[in-house]
Design a protein that fits this description.
about 350 residues, alpha+beta, Aminopeptidase, 2 domains, seven-stranded mixed β-sheet, 11 helices, about 30% strand, globular, FemAB family PEP-CTERM system-associated protein, Acyl_CoA_acyltransferase, PG_Glycine_Bridge_Synth
Length: about 350
């Protein structure tokens, strides 16, 4: 009789903190891991630290020298908005990206220990997929909008619902055209004016320049013009087979010529020609105009399961423009001269995450 051999115990994952020498293997893992997103890339550490001055802990779990999971974290500490450890502020997705439960559990435990040691109000995971902790507090304020692209450009046009397709054709008829910009000047002019009209603080121009510098060819600015006049502009991220128009805005002239509609079509058209197969329209808050705009393009909302472990905090944070307590601030901000708003905005938005 042959006895069964005992099963060897699974190797225990050890957790480390990203250092410059680890960047290449971190990003190699992110490209291969199905659960990872553009916002898990190592470059976000240098962007967040340089642009906002927030300390980062980019954790990785490895077994036998091979990375099996990653968890990028940054601390945002503000007297006004609270003290948090988040994966990842200024990003729509984050949380644990791992190949197995052992690596995921090791990262989760390390993150909770770090949050307790830092004395933060809460630990936040911005999950693209399912929430990890049934006993943590959830917030389902946001949905994302993701859709597969057809290989043929014209089929993507026909896939846009009729009324929205008419808006794109209106932009075409108005003589709009797009170009790739190699700096952020035209983009920042359109974007800052757009968010000012919404009554929200703008990021510093330097932040967008850092994104272009750090992510290189994976970060592109597409600007829409009418003759030589800037109409709208968008900063686009590329990751694996995905295209993500992330920051965008239009000038006052954009509405009359459907500039924003044409802009997103140009992102889609250019992505299709370059063989990208998934269009990620990003997150929007339920019940907002941005939510309706994306649904009108034929995208189905997918809830984002953000989750929070409360430590010193007593409630889930509510730092968003829909909060009634910020309505007076929004009205006042709209009245500020644009140059003054652009000067003051970065000092506020750096703590909003």
């Amino acid at each position: 009789m042959i006895s069964e051999c005992p099963t060897a115990p699974a190797a225990v994952a050890t957790v480390g903190v990203l250092k410059p020498a680890d960047v290449a293997r971190w990003d190699d893992f992110v490209l291969r891991c199905p659960a990872a997103t553009f916002f898990h890339r190592a470059g976000w550490q240098s962007v967040i630290e340089a642009a906002f001055g927030h300390r980062c802990w980019f954790l990785y779990a490895e077994v036998d020298g091979q990375i099996r999971g990653v968890l990028p974290l940054a601390q945002v500490n503000s007297r006004l908005f609270g003290n948090s450890l988040c994966s990842l502020p200024f990003c729509v997705y984050g949380g644990i990206a791992a190949l197995d439960e052992g690596a995921a559990a090791a990262l989760d435990q390390a993150a909770q220990q770090l949050a307790a040691r830092l004395g933060v109000d809460y630990l936040e995971y911005r999950n693209l997929g399912a929430a990890r902790h049934a006993d943590w507090i959830g917030k389902e304020l946001y949905c994302t909008f993701r859709k597969r692209l057809h290989a043929q450009t014209e089929q993507n046009m026909l896939d846009i619902p009729r009324k929205q397709r008419a808006m794109v054709r209106k932009g075409i008829a108005a003589g709009l055209h797009s170009a790739i910009d190699y700096d952020v000047e035209h983009f920042f002019a359109a974007y800052s004016a757009s968010v000012h009209r919404l009554g929200t603080p703008v990021f510093a121009k330097r932040y967008f320049a850092l994104l272009r510098e750090v992510f290189g060819a994976s970060c592109e600015v597409i600007t829409v013009y009418r003759k030589h006049d800037t109409i709208a502009s968008v900063m686009v991220f590329y990751f694996r087979d995905e295209v993500l128009p992330y920051y965008g805005g239009g000038t006052e002239a954009a509405r009359s010529v459907a500039g924003n509609d044409f802009m997103y079509w140009e992102v889609m058209r250019r992505a299709c020609q370059r063989n990208y197969t998934l269009f990620d329209f990003g997150r929007s808050k339920l019940g907002t105009g941005a939510w309706d705009f994306k649904k009108n393009w034929g995208f189905a909302p997918q809830p984002l399961h953000y989750e929070y472990q409360l430590l010193r905090g007593r409630a889930v944070p509510d730092n968003n423009p829909l909060n009634p307590r910020y309505q007076r601030f929004i009205q006042l901000w709209r009245r500020l001269p644009l140059p003054l708003a652009n000067m003051l905005g970065p000092h506020i938005v750096r703590y909003l995450g």
